[in-house]
Amino acid sequence: MAATSRIGCAPNSNSCGTTRNGEVPTNTHDAWNDVAQMKGYFMTFTKLILALACLMSGTLLAQEAKVTELMSKDLSFPGKEGLMITVEYPPGGKDPIHRHNAYEFIYVLEGSIVMQVRGGKETTLTPGQAFYEGPDDVHVIGRNASQTKPAKFVVFFVKDKGAPILVPTK
Q: Which domain of life does the UniProt lineage start with (predicted)?
């Protein structure tokens, strides 16, 4: 039997211009239905991928803390400044391991947070409780204790003027 060739189709292939059953469509209506169905599958798949991408990026964004500077003031100690900020942890939010190279006083306003410095014990703080970190401390745990509710706290630093408030470390 001689192989037939169809314009625009791969040689010896039944995939071009056939239905799902491998049959040649009997009319253009069947062919258009197949095209529409494939387009529907493609659009559903595309929407699924976009939804997953949005969920994943939303999860990543939800992990970042929001930091707001309240005030900064030069102190009468040479080269030192006071800095006051608020930190808002979203549900499940946490910080990387870091240090501050400053004296840091934390006061919890809302929610519950977990703090720990290297060599110290893990401490869970609730509204009205405070925590201290010294300039030599490495902050190994800083996170929201809740996976469903946000947490907010005030931090007051005494630090070198112009120095960053957070220095990533191991």
A: Bacteria
Mark whether 34 and 117 lie in a shared domain: no
Query: At CA 56, angle to CA 50 and CA 60, rounded to 5?
Result: 140
Distance of alpha carbon 86 from alpha carbon 137, whole angstroms: 20
Same domain? 41 vs 85: no
Q: Flag whether 58 is in a domain.
A: yes
Residues 148 and 105 in one domain: yes
Tally of domains in the chain: 2
Give pLDDT tens digits for 9-27: 555 555 555 555 666 555 6
* Sign of the four-CA dihedral 156, 160, 165, 170: negative
Taking only the tens place, the pLDDT of each residue in 64-99 is: 899 999 999 999 999 999 999 999 999 999 999 999
Radius of gyration of the chain (CA): 30
